[in-house]
Every structure is written in C-alpha cells, then in structure tokens.
Amino acid sequence: MRIKVPKSFDLNVKNSESVSKIAAAARNGGVKYALMIPSIKPIYDKLHLAYNLKRANEENFNLFVAIEGIHDNKLSEISILKNKGASAIYINSDEDMNLIKRVFEYAEFLDIPVFVNANNKALSIGVMNDSPKAYALGLQGIPNYAESIEVAKILELSKHFKAKIVFQNITTKESIEILKDRPKNVFVDVCIDNLYFCDEDIGEFNTLFKTFPPLRSKEDKNALLKACEEGIIDFISSNHIAATNKDVPFEEADYGISKLDIFTQLAYSLPLPHEIVTKLISTNPSKLFNIEINEFIEVEFGEFEIDSNKFESKSKITPYKKLKAKIV
After folding, report:
1. How many CB atoms lie within 10 A of CB 27?
2. Whole-angstrom Cα distance, residue 238 to residue 116?
3. What whole-number distance in Å separates Cα of residue 319 and Cα of residue 13?
4. Could you tell me if 300 and 268 are in contact, meaning their C-beta atoms sit under 8 angstroms apart?
5. What is the residue-level pLDDT of the chain in tens, covering all 328 positions?
6. Cα 294 to the center of its chain, rounded Å
7. What is the pTM of this model?
8. What are phi and psi of 251, to 5 degrees?
9. How many helices (H) and strands (E) are present in the chain, helices listed first?
C-alpha cells in the first residue's frame, strides 16, 4: 500500500553537526523544515545566528533556528535576534524564574514560540531512567519527577501569558497527566525514540540506546502512544543528535540517537493511524509557525531493512534496524 503525505517539519534537531549534514540528512528523511535547537552549541547572539542561517541558505534548506533565551544567567537580545531571523526561543526550565518570566513576556509581545526543556539538572545526574533496570546494571538513574516537577512549575507560569509555549521531549506519564488540561497556548512535543523504545531495550549496557532525555519505562512509552491518539501530544520530533562516541563504557558514551535520515519513515512505522502521524509531524508543526507544507511524498508500507551506511548525518550509529514504511 502507498499513501501520499506532506513532507515533515522536525521541531527538534540538535546542532550537533554542520548545517550541510543536517540538510542532507533531512532530505533523506522526508523533512521539508527543521528547527535547530541550540543545546549542543550556543546560539545566543547575532554572530551565531547569522552563521547558521547563512549555511542553510547556501544549502537551499529551510532551517528554522531557535536562539537561547537565557545565556550565562542573562537574558539574550531576543527582540534583535528575532529581527535578524530567529524563529523560536529555547530555554531550560530550571533557569532563574524571573528570567523565564521575562522570556515569556518577550515571546508574547514578539509572537515567537518558546521551546522548554523541562528538566531539573540537580535531579538528573544519572545516565538512564531510574528503574529496576538501572539498579540491575548498577547505573545511576534519572527519576521521572526530574521532568514532571519542572513541567508543573512552567505550566503554572505559562497560564499568565499568551505566548506559545512548547514542552519539548516529554517522556513520562506523570507529565502527560499534568498537561492534559493545559491552556490553548501550551503545546506538547514527544521524541520519537520514546515511542519506540523503553529502558529495557538497553539490555546489557547497549550504548546505542543512551540518549537524553532517557528512555523511560514501558508504561511511560504506552502512555505517550495513547496521548498521541487522544490529542494530548501535539508534535512528534526526532531529537536527532549525531552521537559518534558509543563504543565505550555506558557512563562515558555520548548521549543521542541519529535518525534524521529516516525520521518520516520512522513516524509512519509507528503503531498509530496515518492521519494522526501526518497531523503530529506535518500539520501541527507548520501551524505553529503559520506556514503551509505544499510538497508531498509517497510512503510505501511493508517490511524494510535500514542501511545506516546511507545516512548523510555525521553519525551512522543507530539502534533502529527495520521500518514498516519507506519513502518511494
């Protein structure tokens, strides 16, 4: 069976490799637009922003760039950076709350979305999900509440503003429960890894599954899939990170999974109706930025092997082995 679908808008591509690599990988993965998230390298001033936008222009690629709203405990020049081409703001939830409030004020005034990494760093000093699996492996875990307490805090603050607030990379059933009755200006994003895998997949220290936020329990994964069907989750994104240092002990391995080259294919391989997938990877992300995706691709369904040697990303290391959908 084949279906015709719009190309994807990936709202979470980490700046872990060159723009040229990102652009090439995105084309492989059926991605028309990508939002660069500055969690690996800083993007907080005109120089960093201009560099990435220039490289995207040279590649003829539709790259949206998020700038850090807060850098070194100071507010970035958000208004100036938006005028210079910034498309979004990125913040960590455990920054100074007064600075976060000011970021929300700027975002509301400038009509620019804020992407929030909901994570308490002081509680996230482990390397995988805090679970019986972590105990069995002797690895320090990251508890669910390291995310959910930050979600509750930022959600309460967001109720006092009209800015578009996106909770990025939500992984836990507790966070989903908190966000069920969110205001209309608040959106929920989930990484595709957390819809495929859980902490049990780590097996005996398999570093291919080391990522952040971590793979949670099977119960969390099922709660996320259900939330996609129920409309609680608004976006599915890749959280693509070109991690290359994986052939080392688990504690020393890079965080991240390479998958931008197969993002659309993975999304349509999920156990979700095709219409819901289209909404979560194309329709909803484009609405967030008030654009329309008018390029389409054909997706064929079946059983397909993944050849990561054909990846254009810097990292060809991935735990994904098979697909149920491919781009024709």
Report:
1. 16
2. 16
3. 18
4. no
5. 999 999 999 999 999 999 999 999 999 999 999 999 999 999 999 999 999 999 999 999 999 999 999 999 999 999 999 999 999 999 999 999 999 999 999 999 999 999 999 999 999 999 999 999 999 999 999 999 999 999 999 999 999 999 999 999 999 999 999 999 999 999 999 999 999 999 999 999 999 999 999 999 999 999 999 999 999 999 999 999 999 999 999 999 999 999 999 999 999 999 999 999 999 999 999 999 999 999 999 999 999 999 999 999 999 999 999 999 999 9
6. 23
7. 0.97
8. -65, -30
9. 12, 15
Return d(Cα 21, Cα 96) in angstroms, integer.
34
Nearest to 113 by CA among 288, 233, 269: 288
- What is the DSSP pairing of strand 296-305 with strand 31-37? unpaired
Angstrom distance (rounded) from CA 47 to CA 104: 24
Residue ranges of domains in the chain, CATH in brackets: 2-327 (3.20.20.140)
With tokens 């899939």, the residue in question is: 225
Nearest Cα to 173, choosing from 121, 234, 222, 119?
222
Residue 186's H or E segment, with its range, is strand 186-191
Q: Which two tokens stand for residue 49?
A: 């922003």
* H-helix segments, 3-76: 19-28, 46-58
Alpha helices, DSSP H, located in the chain? 19-28, 46-58, 78-83, 97-110, 132-137, 145-158, 173-179, 193-196, 218-230, 263-269, 274-278, 284-288
**What is the 8-class DSSP label of residue 282?**
I
What does the alpha-carbon distance between residue 94 and residue 124 come to, in Å, rounded to a whole number?
Answer: 12
Angle at 214 between CA 219 and CA 221, to 5 degrees: 20
